[in-house]
Amino acid sequence: MSLQEYECPACGGAMEFNPTTQKLKCLYCDSEFDVKDYVANHNSNSAGTAAENTSAYSEGSEPLFIYTCGSCGGEIITTDSLGSTKCPFCSNNVVVKEKFTGEFKPDYVIPFSKTKEDAIETYKSYVKARKLIPPVFAEQNHIDEIKGIYVPFWLYDATEHFNGEYEATRHRTWSDSTYHYRETKYYNLTREGTESFKYVPVDASKEMPDDLMDSLEPFDRNAMVPFNMGYLAGFLANKYNVSSEESISRALSRMELTTSADFQQTISGYDSISPLHVDLHTVKATNKYALYPVYILNTTWRGKNYLFAMNGQSGKFVGNLPFSLKQALKYYIPFALGFSLLAYIVLYFVL
Ligand SMILES: [Zn+2]
Ligand SMILES: [Zn+2]
Predict the structure, then answer these.
(1) Per-residue pLDDT tens over the stretch 60-72
(2) Residue 114 contacts residue 295 (beta carbons within 8 Å)
(3) Total Cβ atoms within 10 A of residue 228
(4) Which of these, 4, 104, 10, lies nearest to 47 by C-alpha position?
(5) What is the largest CA-CA distance in the chain?
(6) What is the distance in A from the centroid of ligand 2 to the CA of 61?
(7) Quick one: which ligand is closest to 30's CA?
(8) What's this model's pTM, rounded to 2 decimal places?
């Protein structure tokens, strides 16, 4: 068990992955290295050792682990799932190797392409556009808590075999001098075939709400690269804690819904279509493991949890920030008063 340190080979300063240049960059001397070319300083690999599992437990009863920083000797504390963090003493970025090797080694990673500044700007304009958000959410120290985190995802490939039978109808109406006529023709239709899916993502982290992660899609998988720990430097990263067996049903039900809709869409030219029976089965399914980039701001306010998230690749933003009654009174009551006064004056003159 050891740490991979991201320390500048030129000056010893902290290095981090830069989303703009897609390279490892030293924060002090601006040296840049290709992620693939980076070789850690001589002391990086051996000096980082994991201390005994402490009896201390974090809030969520997740055990804590203590590592020794290879650069400064300071203690670095991580949880069981957190695998990329920062030394609190020398600010060097470190990756806990065991969290991303062996069975935990991701096949791919989508590197961050949006910077933390992008996330901050997006968040600020979101808050600005919604005047009813409590002012505390617009405060700078709150905004500083936006974190870039690599979220573990399972990516499923599968082929769905589809067999469906439908009843469709066509109507015709006409009249003569005596009667109105209505004719309904019934058709029996079948559809059969397969549809293949590649890299359908399902988040593999217990801490991340599934619906929030789903709504951050799509991620462009063309930007996916083979995993290298260097992309994690300067960001938080979690290893998976939901297995691929536990996640597969979510992926398959998404594929089944899409397959059913796609086959039904091949039927056209009828007034009504109703499925009589639909049979779906998965022909084969395989999976890969990848880390996807997400910016998160997680806040508790008056005992409730609020979350904002941004896709670290596309900049797509999702959030649920609270509505403040006080702000509503401040912004809307004067308008409402103004309008009723105006209405009163108009009425007065009309009458
Ligand atoms: Zn440097
Ligand atoms: Zn250190």
Answers:
(1) 556 788 888 888 8
(2) yes
(3) 16
(4) 4
(5) 100
(6) 26
(7) 1
(8) 0.81
User: Omega before 201 cis (within 30°)?
Assistant: no
CA 16 to chain centre: 21
User: Rounded to 5 degrees, what are φ and ψ at 337?
Assistant: -60, -45
Contacts (Cβ under 8 Å, ≥6 apart) of 41? 5, 7, 9, 12, 71
CB 8 within 8 A of CB 31: yes
Query: Closest by alpha carbon to 227, among 281, 155, 144, 162?
Result: 155
* pLDDT value for 97: 87
Give the ligand whose atoms come closest to the C-alpha of residue 93.
Answer: 2
Which one is predicted more confidently, 302 or 309? 309
Name the residue among 232, 218, 225 with its Cα closest to residue 314: 218
Q: Which ligand is nearest to the CA of 92?
A: 2
Cβ-based neighbour number of residue 141 at 10 Å: 7
Q: Give residue 235 CA to ligand 1 midpoint distance, Å.
A: 18
Which ligand approaches the C-alpha of residue 10 most closely? 1
CA-CA distance, 150 to 84, in Å (whole number)? Answer: 9
**Cα-to-centroid distance, 147 and ligand 1 (Å):** 24
Q: Are the C-beta atoms of 13 and 7 separated by less than 8 Å? A: yes
Could you tell me the distance, in angstroms and rounded to a whole number, from the CA of residue 7 to the centre of ligand 2?
10
3-state SS assignment for residue 45: helix
Does residue 334 carry a pLDDT above 90? no
Least confident segment among 65-69, 134-138, 313-317: 134-138
Task: At 201, list the tokens.
Answer: 């993502």
- Residue spans per domain, the chain: 3-105, 116-320
Percent of the chain with pLDDT over 90: 53
How many Å lie between the centroid of ligand 1 and the Cα of residue 38? 13
Span from the CA of 24 to the centroid of ligand 2 (angstroms): 18
* Residue 98 DSSP one-character state: G
| Confidence check: pLDDT of 238 > 70 | yes
